[in-house]
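Lab notebook, design round three. We kept the backbone fixed and only want residue identities now. Task for the bench partner: fill in a sequence for the structure below.
Input structure tokens:
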């Protein structure tokens, strides 16, 4: 993210997008989350560790369908019934990534029903209006089905790691991996539920009554550093630049910070 400019150009309209936060349990029962590192030449969040996701395509039947498609393309995990074996999933994924078939071809040929009910709405983030590339992204949490071993696609994503929320935050603060602000906030929100494993997620997701309410961060220079102000920050309206959609303090999700400051290459929550 570049320094906050002095004058904003006309804002780009955000493109609809969808993201999946893939989770599973360790042998200890603790929750861990999958992160994929984007290619260093990517036009958006290059080299950052993110959740699988991307733009909603015209052929997608809404954000949930797009989330399932992106999860399969980027991580090889297919949320659909009937279940396909690993070899068949790999063959179809190769065709999709090679441009020899579309996701609709896979669904039709295998008679699949997308398991949208397995997606638990978590949040909705809109890229700050000062950014040249913007998305209106729905975030969903989903457990990785047994027998599905995720793998990066070696195109948009080039590495992967499973971490508990606390581990991800610690490694991000140490500069060992780059976590964009939405990933930092999500890990902070998931951290209190990690000890409860997958069983704790339905209640945690259900408690997020405003999961569909857009969260539009604003950028600011605070103390000489680039800062992301979330809509419930008390200085959101006064200090932030760009489009605004303030939210009352009561709308602040449990565990979420009010702002994040860029220190070196790390986003530090305050």
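Proposed sequence:
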């Amino acid at each position: 993210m570049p320094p906050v400019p002095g004058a904003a150009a006309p804002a780009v309209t955000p493109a609809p997008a969808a993201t999946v936060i893939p989770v599973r349990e360790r042998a200890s029962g603790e929750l861990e989350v999958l992160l994929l590192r984007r290619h260093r030449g990517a036009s958006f969040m290059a080299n950052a560790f993110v959740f699988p996701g991307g733009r909603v395509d015209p052929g997608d039947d809404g954000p949930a369908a797009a989330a399932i498609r992106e999860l399969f393309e980027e991580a090889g995990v297919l949320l659909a019934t009937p279940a396909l074996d690993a070899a068949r999933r790999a063959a179809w994924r190769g065709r999709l990534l090679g441009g020899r078939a579309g996701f609709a071809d896979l669904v039709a040929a295998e008679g699949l029903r997308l398991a949208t009910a397995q997606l638990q709405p978590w949040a909705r983030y809109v890229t700050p209006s000062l950014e040249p590339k913007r998305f209106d992204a729905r975030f969903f949490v989903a457990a990785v089905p047994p027998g599905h071993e995720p793998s990066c696609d070696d195109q948009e994503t080039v590495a992967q790691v499973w971490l508990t929320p606390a581990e991800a935050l610690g490694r991000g603060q140490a500069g060992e991996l780059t976590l964009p602000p939405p990933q930092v906030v999500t890990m902070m929100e998931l951290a209190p539920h990690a000890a409860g494993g997958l069983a704790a997620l339905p209640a945690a997701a259900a408690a997020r009554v405003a999961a569909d309410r857009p969260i539009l961060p604003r950028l600011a220079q605070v103390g000489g550093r680039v800062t992301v102000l979330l809509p419930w920050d008390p200085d959101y309206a006064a200090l932030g630049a760009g489009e605004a959609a303030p939210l009352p303090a009561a709308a602040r999700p449990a565990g979420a910070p009010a702002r994040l400051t860029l220190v070196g290459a790390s986003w530090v929550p305050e």
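Keep this in mind before ordering anything: The chain has a mean pLDDT of 92.
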